[in-house]
């Protein structure tokens, strides 16, 4: 659902080169039809149910929903903006929001009456552009937690209580690194904390890999960097300078990728965005734990023969735990020929009426508090405890929640940070190399 590839970055760049092209109007849109695109197949039934409710309240209006895979979604959306075949409404990701807002392909939604207090903290504010106009209505949210194989952790002598009370630091890794080392087993049966452990012949890794993490590290290093007190930008939203040159950040990255050097986490060469992500490694029994997002709850719960539980992210040097709290939104395209119907649909999507329906399917946490409550209840009925994801939102004293970096030129940032992080992770390049990458990104951002 939230897997990122360079498709979105390349698409946004292509869009920027032709943003002056004439627009013809949304594909299939008409006075009585609203076209709506989303990428998550798991959520499709929930939104089909919402469409029925919307159509009942708005006689004469129909919603035509199109579901596309992640990569195809952004490619076709970008092509649609260029050719005039974009939908009336689409599910938007904060990663691309800045670029789309700057290119003026989104319709302002100030007249929808979206109030911050109607949604989980911070979600509504994230979709206000630099110009002060709203371009997205909050849809859902997610946080990150530590998934773990219960049998493997028990065999290692680790209890659920211990896993929920881990701490870390960039010097020796703290109790988190000790736990990951304990969970790592080489092909001779030696654990990572035992004499004779062979880091070059590992059978089960203590921590799965989700790759280098691009420039956001959502399910990789972000919780560690934030719990060490670091922030992506000089301002929470629409910052003017990235801070990848921070010594704090670089110490975190050196320690985190150092887990692979010690044999506790797979090397970058083992990772594949299509076929060998962290969840695949857990399912195959190749890793004991993985940091992953709330959108993956149902996937981990469905692994046959694996009893997967979740734990909170570890406490960092600041004394707090941390997790990215990302949130999607629904946006209206500026070239829509049915803006009135599109805005009615977006307002309905952002209302408790729809969000409680979506929550009842137990596949995502909707943005409204009532929608979240419905989702928690639905997960509970399935026998799934989601407190590791909801507790960070409720407990601001002990948790730091933070957003995906919101700034202009995010596609360019991603394009520069992806190879930079992979060079450090896979090729042993020093973390100080991020100084130059950060300078390049900030040069683009200052334009």
TrEMBL record:
PANTHER family for this protein: ARABINOSE-BINDING PROTEIN-RELATED, SN-GLYCEROL-3-PHOSPHATE-BINDING PERIPLASMIC PROTEIN UGPB
Subcellular location: Cell envelope
UniProt KW Secreted keyword: no
Similarity comment text for this entry: Belongs to the bacterial solute-binding protein 1 family.
Lineage of the organism: Bacteria, Bacillati, Actinomycetota, Actinomycetes, Kitasatosporales
Listed name of the protein: Sugar ABC transporter substrate-binding protein
Family annotation (Gene3D superfamilies): Periplasmic binding protein-like II
Signal peptide from the UniProt entry: 1-24
Species: Streptomyces lomondensis
Keywords in alphabetical order: Signal, Transport
